[in-house]
Amino acid sequence: MNISKSIILSSAFLSFTTLAGAASVSYNNTFTLDIPTQTKTSAPVVTEFKVTGVFLDNAILSGYFDITNGQITSADMKVSGINETFTLDHNGNGDFSTHNGVNVWQNVDLSADGNVLSLDLLLAPGVTDLKNYAGGQLCDASHNCGTQSSYYLPEHDNDPLLKSGAAAPEPTAMSLIGAGLGALGLAFRRRSVKK
Predict the structure, then answer these.
(1) Residues 80 and 22 in one domain
(2) What is the structure's pLDDT at 19?
(3) Structural domain containing residue 71
(4) 3-state class of 111 per DSSP?
(5) Most CB atoms closer than 10 Å: which of 38, 157, 163, 194?
(6) Using CA atoms, how far apart are residues 110 and 72, in angstroms rounded to an integer?
(7) 50 and 25 inside one domain
(8) Running DSSP on this structure, what letter comes out for residue 61?
(9) CA 43, CA 178: separation in Å to the nearest integer?
(10) Sign of dihedral through CA atoms 79, 72, 165, 98?
C-alpha cells in the first residue's frame, strides 16, 4: 500500500474537534494530540492624511499625519523656510474642545529643532474624537474654529497664524491594489464579451 492510500484510510479513524481556542486530534480513541490555536486580532486601522496650507507670512505647510484607532500616532510636516522636519511632541496627538459652538481637535503639537507647529483640526458637527475623522479644514485665521487657529512659531520670530489649510485622507495601498484589480477584471470581461 502506498503512503497516500495509507493516509486516506487512516484519516477515516481520525476525529477533529475545536474547543475554547485549542484543537484536539484523536486517532481511533487511543491517543489525543492537543494543538493550541492562535486567536486572530484585527490589525490597527491606520489612515494617512495629507496636510497642505499657507500661513499669513506666506510660508507653505505640507506633510502627513497618521491616525491609528482614533489617535494621531505620527506626523511628518514641513514649513517652507525651516529646514528641519516637524514631528510629534510627547503629547502631540491633541485633545477635543469646543470653541464658540465649533468642535475642534486642538493642540496637535509638533516641533523641529526649537521651532514649534501647532495644528487644530475642524471637526464635523457632532464629532468629538478622531475615530471617524474624514479630513477637512484646519483651524485658521478666518476664525472658522472660533478663537482657535493653527500656527507655527519660528525659533526667533512671531507666530504666524494659518491663512488656510486642509487635511485630506490618502488612499491606502490595499484600496489602490483593489481598484487596480477591479479595473483589470473589467477590462478582461469586456475583452471576452467582444469575442
Answers:
(1) no
(2) 46
(3) 46-170
(4) strand
(5) 163
(6) 11
(7) no
(8) E
(9) 18
(10) negative
Is residue 25 domain-shared with residue 71, that is, in the same domain?
A: no
User: Is 182 a member of any domain?
Assistant: no
Distance of CA 55 to the CA centre of its chain: 26
What is the pairing mode between strands 136-137 and 46-55? Answer: unpaired
Q: Determine the 3-state secondary structure of 137 from DSSP.
A: strand
Q: How many residues does the chain have?
A: 195
Written as nine digits, the cell of 185 is 477584471
Number of structural domains (the chain) is 2
Residue bearing cell 481511533: 28
**Buried-state track 101-122, b at ≥16 Cβ within 10 A, e below 16:** ebbbbbbbbbbbeebbbbbbbb
Written as tens digits, the pLDDT of the chain (195 aa) is: 444 443 333 444 444 444 444 455 455 555 555 555 555 566 677 899 999 999 999 999 999 999 988 899 999 999 999 999 999 986 668 899 998 899 999 999 999 988 999 999 999 999 999 988 999 999 999 999 988 999 998 866 678 999 999 999 987 655 656 677 777 777 777 777 666
Terminal-residue alpha carbon distance, the chain: 50
Name the nearest CA neighbour of 105 among 92, 118, 121: 121
54 and 140 both lie in a single domain: yes
CA gap 77, 66 in Å, rounded: 11
